[in-house]
Design brief:
This protein is mainly alpha-helical. 81% of the residues lie in helices and 0% in strands. The chain has a single domain, classed as Ferritin, core subunit, four-helix bundle (Ferritin).
Length: 161
């Protein structure tokens, strides 16, 4: 039981580390392009992913396992907002599927605590998916005007408009 749970928990850490690195990259580039609302959104989700890593690591330590702190993939150099949002949507969708499957596997191995942890992650990842999907809908509906409004709002916040 423990070995399989630890393996799945470490896989999750690798995925969460990749997500938080990618979302911080998006945060930096949105901030640089004066899209302050999207920048803040990516930063907020990255911080939530970091909290996921902490919770996963705590569970591994409880199970007397070794934590592997390596991202599963390198940061993708995506700097256009539509590409960022699509990547985030796809990533969250994959995470939802993985965490649901891993919760089922933990249940089969009589590890209800790790199962519950994965189920709680599904809730968060579905919320992230909804946020990114909503932003993509706005971008499709309003196009560049939506991004221009974000830039104007950022300037207002800085007292430049």
């Amino acid at each position: 039981m423990r070995e399989k749970s630890i393996e799945l928990l470490n896989k999750s850490i690798a995925e969460e580390m990749s997500a938080l690195n990618q979302y911080m990259f998006f945060h930096f580039h949105c901030d640089d392009q004066d899209y302050s609302l999207l920048s803040a959104l990516f930063k907020k989700v990255a911080i939530e992913e970091m909290i996921h890593v902490e919770n996963l690591a705590d569970r591994i330590l409880f199970l007397k396992g070794e934590i592997v702190m390596e991202a599963s993939q390198k940061v993708k150099q995506i700097t256009d907002v539509k590409g960022m949002l699509q990547f985030a949507i796809d990533s969250e969708e994959e995470a939802i599927i993985d965490y649901n499957n891993w919760a089922i596997e933990c249940s089969k191995n009589a590890d209800s605590v790790t199962k519950s942890l994965f189920e709680s992650l599904v809730v968060d990842e579905e919320r992230h998916y909804g946020i990114f999907d909503s932003e993509m809908d706005k971008l499709k509906k309003f196009g560049d005007q939506y991004l221009a409004l974000q830039s104007i709002e950022g300037s207002k916040a800085l007292g430049q408009v």
